[in-house]
Amino acid sequence: MKPGVQAEQLAAQFLQRQGLTLVESNYRCRFGEIDLILREGETLVFAEVRQRSRSDFGGAAASIDMHKQQRLILTAQQYLASLPHIPPCRFDALLLDAASNIEWVKNAFEV
Questions:
Q1: Where are the alpha helices (DSSP H) in the chain?
Q2: What are residue 6's phi and psi, to 5 degrees?
Q3: Which of 13, 51, 93, 109 has the fewest CB atoms inside 10 Å of its own CB, making it the most exposed?
Q4: Over the chain (111 residues), what is each successive 10-residue block's mean pLDDT?
Q5: Which residues are 32's β-sheet partners?
Q6: Spatial contact of 11 and 56, defined as CB atoms under 8 Å apart
Q7: Cβ neighbour number for residue 73 with a 10 Å cutoff
Q8: What is the Cα gyration radius of the chain?
Q9: Where are the domains of the chain?
Q10: Which CATH number fits domain 3-109: 1.10.357.10, 3.40.1350.10, 3.40.350.10, 3.60.21.10?
Q11: Ramachandran region of residue 59, left (φ > 0), alpha (ψ -120 to 50) or beta?
């Protein structure tokens, strides 16, 4: 199993233990991909999962730069366009280190 797939599975399990419900994984469209889409109450959560084995160059969090954020926003807008109504939404980041410790950053960036 590829490390990215394993990291996404670990993150999904972690979030489900926190009470979120998995709606979709690896949603793809022409703008990009969203790793996990979940529900927390009425809120739709778009989650980006990043794992880095080293902290050089800023680690996992630094890899979600402005360009990546813009692609995530466009992809989320495409997903939302398919829904009958738009719920409250947020973007979270799940950052995993080499030991698969998870840091959950809610509202990782604002739209």
A1: 3-17, 59-62, 66-81
A2: -65, -40
A3: 13
A4: 82 97 96 97 96 59 78 96 96 90 90 75
A5: 29
A6: no
A7: 16
A8: 13
A9: 3-109
A10: 3.40.1350.10
A11: left
CA distance 97 to 61: 11
Backbone angles phi, psi at 75, to 5 degrees: -65, -40
Structure tokens at 4: 């990215």
Strands 32-40 and 21-29: antiparallel
Q: What is the pLDDT of residue 97?
A: 85
Integer Cα distance of 70 and 18 in angstroms:
27
Residue 60 near residue 102, CB atoms below 8 Å = no
d(CA 79, CA 69): 15
Whole-angstrom Cα distance, residue 28 to residue 31? 8
